[in-house]
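Q: Second attempt. The first request was missing the SMILES, so the protein and magnesium ion are both included now.
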Amino acid sequence: MNHPTTAPAPGALILRLRGVGKKFGAVTALEDIDLDVHAGEVVALVGDNGAGKSTLVKVLAGVHQPTSGTIEVSGNPVTLDTPGRALELGIATVFQDLALCENLDVVANLFLGQEIGPWAMDEVQMEVRAWTLLQELAARIPSVREPVASLSGGQRQTVAIARSLLLEPQIIMLDEPTAALGVAQTAEVLNLIERVRARGHGVILISHNMEDVRAVANRIVVLRLGRNNGVFTADTSHQELVAAITGASENSVSRRAARKREDMKREDMEQIQ
Ligand SMILES: Nc1ncnc2c1ncn2[C@@H]1O[C@H](COP(=O)(O)OP(=O)(O)OP(=O)(O)O)[C@@H](O)[C@H]1O
Ligand SMILES: [Mg+2]
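A: Got both inputs this time. The predicted holo structure:
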C-alpha cells in the first residue's frame, strides 16, 4: 500500500502503534509502546535522555526495525523496512542535523534528490513550487536564491520542514526543531508547526522544551526508560510533566506503597508475636 494522494479526513487516525519494542542486543530501548497520531494534530514526544525518543523516531523513519509490536498506517499494518518505504507510506522525518547543503540555495536544497521529472530539472518550475510552498507556510525567507549558509537557524529549520512537505506526507516527525534557536526564531518555528498542522498533516514533535511543547501540542506523550509513562493535554502543568518525565510522581507513589507494605509487615509481625 502506498499512501493515498488525497489528504486524510481531519481527525482520522493515520498512525497507530501497539506494543512496539526495540532491543539492541541486551539493551531494551523501547518496550510495549502505544502511540496514536491523527490528521491535523501535533503529538509531542518527550522524555529524559535515553528515554527512547530517537529510537522511536528511527523505527518510524524505517531506519531501525522494531523487535516486537505492530504499526498501522491509515488502518493498514505496515513494515517500515527502509527509509524509502516510510516515505512512500507518507511518513517524513526532519532529523536534528537537518542535512542541508550550505553552499546551495533554498530551491536547490528543497529539491535535492527529488528534482521534478528525470529530464526536466526545470529551474523555473522548481522556483515557483518553492515560493508557493514557502508562502503557504508564511515562511520568512528573504529569497529562494539565497544560499543556506546565509540563513538563520530558524530559517534553516523552515527550509528543512518545507523540503519534507514537498512529498505531501501524512505524518511529519520533527526531532528537536527548536533546540538550537533563540526566542524569536523558536516562535517562528512554532508558528510554522501550527501551519503544518492546519494543512492536515499529523505532526510528531520531539522536544526537551516543555514551554514549546505546551504551546503547540494537542497531546503530550511521555516516554520514560523506553516505556509509555502517560499521555497528557497541553494544559498539564510544567511540574506534572516533569514528574512524569523524571519518574518523580512514580517515586512518591512507590515510596508511599513501600511504606504501606512495611507497616503491614510490622502489623503482621506484631499479631504473630
Ligand atoms: N544503536 C544503538 N545501539 C545500542 N543501544 C542504543 C542504540 N541506539 C539507542 N540505544 C540505547 O537505547 C536507549 C534509548 O536511546 P535514545 O537515543 O532513543 O534516547 P533519546 O530519548 O533519544 O535520548 P536523548 O534525549 O539523549 O536524545 C538508550 O539506552 C541508548 O543507549
Ligand atoms: Mg535522542
